[in-house]
UniProtKB/TrEMBL annotation:
Alphabetized UniProt keyword annotations: Acetoin catabolism
Domain of life of the native organism: Bacteria
Ranges for domain Histone deacetylase: 22-313
Protein name: Acetoin utilization protein AcuC
Statement: the UniProt record of this protein carries the keyword Kinase: no
Keyword Heme: no
Organism: Planobispora rosea
Amino acid sequence: MSRSVRVLWDDALTSYDFGPGHPLAPVRVELTMALARELGVLDAVEMAGCVPATDDELALVHKRDYIEAVKRVSATGRPDRAAGLGTEDNPAFTGVHEASALIAGATLAAARAVWTGEAEHAANVAGGLHHAMASTASGFCVYNDPAVAIAWMLAQGATRIAYVDVDVHHGDGVQALFYDDPRVLTISLHESPRTLFPGTGFPEELGAEGTAVNVALPAGCGDSGWLRAFHAVVPPLLREFAPEVLVTQHGCDSHALDPLANLMLSLDGQRTAYAALHELAHETAGGRWIATGGGGYELVQVVPRAWTHLLAEVAGRPLDPATATPQEWRGLVRERTGQTPPLTMTDGRKPEFQDFADGYDPADPIDRAILATRKAVFPFHGLDPLP
C-alpha cells in the first residue's frame, strides 16, 4: 500500500453542471464516489475537503479579464461568447465561476498535499478539465485545474513536472499553457486529431526542447494497441525526464462504449494503464503522484467503475476485477438514472500487448503512430526512436 493517500471531495463538486442533456453530467462523479465508498476503497485513504481556488491562484494560468468574464456570467447566467461561455459545448449557467473554482481548488489541494509531503498520492476525480485555455472556455472546461496545480508547484520551486493525459481527447489546454516551458513535460495519448476534437495533438507539436509529446492513435484502437503505444513512449520519457511530481489525467472516454469518441478500450485495459502509471510514479517521481478524472460520457457502465478502479489503485489496494458491484449502489444507479447498473467491476477482458522493443510493422497504423512520436521527440531526450 502507498504510504499516505488523500482524496479530495466535497458534494458541492457536483455543482459543475451544464444542465439537462449535456454530456458532462455530474451524476458520473456522484456515482463514482458512491461506488468507491460502498466497496471500501475510501476506507483506505484520507478524505479531505476543499475550497475554491482564489483569483490569484486561477491567474497562475488564466488571464485576469477572463476570470472576471466568468464571474459576470456566473452572477447573471448570461452568455459571453468571447469567453467561450454560452456555446453548445459550454452553456452559461449561474454559479459557473464558483463551481469551476472549486474543482480547481480541489486539484490544487491535491497538489499542495503532495508537494509539501502531507500525502504521497492525491486524487480529485472531479478534476481533469484539460481543454480550458488562458482566456477562453473550451470542450466542457472553464478553468484548467491540472494546469493551475502544475503552475502552483512551479511557483513553489519545482523544476521538473511531468503530466500524462490518457483522455481520448488531446490535452490541448495543458499543452498550450506550458508549451514554451521546458520544466513541464506534457504527454498526451489520444485519438487522432484528424477524427476527433480538438483537432490538435500531432507528433510535430514539440514544445520547448521536445517537452510536448503527442501520440495520435487511429480510430478503432483497442487495449492491445493502446497499451503497446503507452509502453513504447511513456516509460522511457518519464525515466529520462525524472520528474519531481507526476500529474495524470484519466479521462475514461477511450472506452468502447463512450458515445463521443472512437477508441475501443475496455475497463480492464484502462485499469491496466492506471497500474502502470502508479508504478511509474514510484519509479520516476519518488512516489509523488497527483491523479485527476477528465472526460467520460458513458455515465453508468464506464465512468463510476473506471474511476473507482483509479481510486483503488491510488490507494494501493487495487480491486479484483471480478468484484461484484454492491446492491446498494445498483439501487442508487436506478434511482438517479433509471438505467440498469453493471454487475461486476470488469468487462471480462485480459489485456495483452506486444512490446514495441521487439520490433514494429511499418504497415500497421498504430506502429506508424508510435514511430512518428518517437522520431519527433526521442532525440531531444537522448533516446533512440527505433526499437
